Every structure is written in C-alpha cells, then in structure tokens.
Amino acid sequence: MTASGRRKFRREGEGRRRRDLIEATLDCVAENGIEGATVRAIAQRAGVSAGLIRHYFPGKAELLQAAYAAVVKRMTDQAKDALAARDARPAERLAAFVRANLGPPVVDTQIFALWAGFIARAHADTALAAVHREGYLGFRDEVESLVGAVLEEAGRPADMAVLRRHAIAINAIIDGLWIEGCMASSLFDEGELARIAIASVAAQLGVDLPGHEGSGR
Amino acid sequence: MTASGRRKFRREGEGRRRRDLIEATLDCVAENGIEGATVRAIAQRAGVSAGLIRHYFPGKAELLQAAYAAVVKRMTDQAKDALAARDARPAERLAAFVRANLGPPVVDTQIFALWAGFIARAHADTALAAVHREGYLGFRDEVESLVGAVLEEAGRPADMAVLRRHAIAINAIIDGLWIEGCMASSLFDEGELARIAIASVAAQLGVDLPGHEGSGR
DNA sequence: CCCGTATTTATACGCTTGCATAACAAGCCG
DNA sequence: CGGCTTGTTATGCAAGCGTATAAATACGGG
C-alpha cells in the first residue's frame, strides 16, 4: 500500500482554469469582502490547491485585476445588451438602457459587494484604478450618445457642453439609485428604482420617455 | 548609565487619546485603504505604541467602527451646517444643501477613500452596516423635508409618496455626483458639480432654484 | 507501452497581523 | 517625599498571509 495521501486531479485547459479561478475569486470577495479573498480561500473554492494560482497568474494582484475586469465587463455587457435589443426610437432605447441598469441582474448585493471592494482598493492600486476608469468612461459615452439622439429626435439638438452636462447628471442618477438599490433593496418595490430614474431623466431632459407616468397613460 | 531604550511618554486624558487614535486610523485608511490600517501603522501615526490601542478599545474592530462613525458624522455635519446658516426661503436652503454636499470639503479624495473602504467592509460587518444605515437615513430625511418645504412654497404641496420619490431621486443625484467628483475631480471645473446638481434638482421638482441658469440671470 | 513534459500538489519559509502579558514610569495623594 | 494607581511600552506568541520550491501525477507523442 502506497499510503499516498496526495489528491487525485484532472488536467484542465488554461482557459477553463483561469475562468474558474476568477469566478472563485469573485465568490470570495462577494462573501467576505476583498480581505476574504485569500489565496487559500480562492483555491479551495475553485477546487484546486493554493499553489496552482501562481501557475496561471504571476501573483495574487494580477488575479484580482482580472477578476475586477470581469466584474466591469459583466456590468457593462448587461447594459449594452439592452441597447442592442431595441433599435427603435432613441427615447425607447434610453429608457431601456436606464431600466437595464436598475433591474434585477445589475442591482444585486453580490455585484455591489464586488464593486465596493474593488473601488476601495482602486485608490491604492493604480492598475485596478485603470481598469475602473476604462469601464466608467465607456458607460458615460454611451449615455452621452443616447441623450444626443433623444434630443435630436425631440427637435432640440444640443451642443457638446450641454450634452456633456446631461450625461453627467443622468449617469449620476443611475449610479446613485443603483447604490441605494443594492444597499437597501428591501426598501424599494420591484421596478420602483427604474421608474424613479426614468421619470427623473425625463424631467432632466424635458422629454417624454416610455414607461413613466407622464408618457400618455 | 541605565541604557534604558524605553521611550519617554506623557499621560493623556482618555478623550484626547481616543480622538488621536481615531484620527490616525482615518489617515491610514485614506492613505492605503482599509487594509493599510493595521494596529501598528495606526499606533505609529498616533505617536504611541501599538499596545495602547487595546487599552482604549476592546479590539481593532471597535476602533474601526468608531472611526467610521466619525466619518459619517463629519459628512452629515457639513451638510447640516449649510442648513443652519440660512433660514431663508426653502428653495435657497435646498440649493445651499446641495451645494454643501458637492463642494470642496465633502468632495474629497480622502473622504471618499474612507467611505469606500468602510462601505466595502460593511457587507461582512453588521456593526459597520448599522453605523452606515443610521447616517444614511438621516441624510435622506433631511432631503425629504427640504423638498416638502420647497414644493409647499411653490404652491404645489405633494403627498407623502411623491415626496418620497423626489427625495430618493435627489439623494441619488447627490450621491452619484459626489462619487464622480471624488473619483475624477480633475474632470470637473470648480463648482461645476454643484451647478449640474442644482439644475438637475430644479428640473426634477419643476421649480426654480437660486444658482442655476434658469433662475433669472 | 513507456517516456517526457507540463500541470498540479504538498510543504516550507519569511513576514505581518491582532492580541496577550509583564515590566515600567508618570503623576497624584497622603 | 515615598508609595500606588494606572496609563504606557516592550516583547512574545500563535495564526494567517503570499510566495518559493520540489516532488508527484496525468496524459499525449514516440
């Protein structure tokens, strides 16, 4: 008898392993904060030994960066899906965009925990900050171009400066409501955040948007 | 020769020491994130030995709670000062409130770093979460009562539900702009955030507020 | 079928962390 | 001015961290 206590294992492709490790990292961060994402905890959740992490990532820092990039991608993809789905009127697309960002898949305790954990760390970690900035600017550009189309449709085309201010404000509304929703989801009815946001955006732009009370119902 | 390498020290009152330790904790968190706030780092910055912390706080967790409570107090006090200063028209008070929350003392990298660090941890630490919730609800109540007064002045008193929705939206605008300002202050001119917020709030409520472009200048 | 290689595990190392403890000294009270 | 209280320091400890390294295993190509 060999008495070999060594674990059996299967070899996996690099892509698969990296994905699993990132997913395990996100689970750990969501559950116990970023400080709960230790190398050992991540490895255990991924079902591998701790040393394997350093076979696929130069260090823990790089794994965290990859994990945060995955979070950013998940959030922005959700929003962009909402845009691709409708190629209808600009006002409808803007409303759908707002709704997508304040609905169940994005407004989520776990995603917020990830966001908060990484945002906090981004202050001391310039690499994480870069990942964040990239995703953020993409989001804001999206809002700006949507607003431009909506105002054009309404016959009130706006110059760049006005457009920029609208985008900043609308972005703030979405962000603010998203945070409130994530941190105290029990305080809001289903769809309430989206309705508040759409009404607020409509007031901001001085247009009617499908889905809020002043829109013909 | 005694060869005593032991440090000289002065005895201080309890209040003073606790305040210094909290201040040192905030400095550490702001500088290196919450993970940079180790017992030893805090003690060094406070100019005392590490063991003293446990003489004034049961453990590190309680020190962090006290520090976060100090942050919350600092932020809300700033805003409430803006209210006390003017007992003029409700519209002016609301504008001052918004401006106070989006000006230099509150919009600040360091305060944001503190906020982000604690918010992230609040997900796994129920005591911190309680501290946060308390400060947050106070803020929102303030907004709600201000909005009520403004609408009353405008001759359009609103029922509770409408008031609540307005407060949620306005709170979101302030929060969102605050975050944007803290994270990318270089992207905004001086006072720009406050101007955008006031314009947005004015549009939201359908009233004129002192300090935005449609207000008679 | 066996060898070679790349994946994976296991173990150990150095460091830092929060916390406990005991020695020490500052300042008050008699 | 000497003793006592207690604020304060210094030292040590066990646990946990990220990382380095070498052994062991899976699995494809000869």
Task: Please explain how this structure is put together.
Two copies of one chain form a homodimer. Chain A is an all-alpha fold and 217 residues long. The first copy, chain A, has two domains: 10-57, Orthogonal Bundle (Arc Repressor Mutant, subunit A), CATH 1.10.10.60; 67-205, Tetracycline Repressor, domain 2. Chain A contains nine helices and no strands. Chain A is elongated, with a radius of gyration of 21 Å. The mean pLDDT of chain A is 88. The structure holds a DNA duplex (30 and 30 nucleotides).
Q: Can I get a quick summary?
A:
Chain A has 217 residues and is mainly alpha-helical.
Task: Please describe the topology of this protein.
The structure is a homodimer of 217-residue chains.
Chain A: H1 14-32, H2 39-46, H3 53-56, H4 60-85, H5 90-101, H6 109-122, H7 126-153, H8 160-183, H9 192-205
Helix pairs in contact in A: 1-2, 1-4, 1-6, 4-5, 4-7, 5-7, 5-9, 6-7, 7-8, 8-9
Chain B binds a DNA duplex (30 and 30 nucleotides) through residues 4-12, 14, 17, 38-40, 48-55, 59-60.
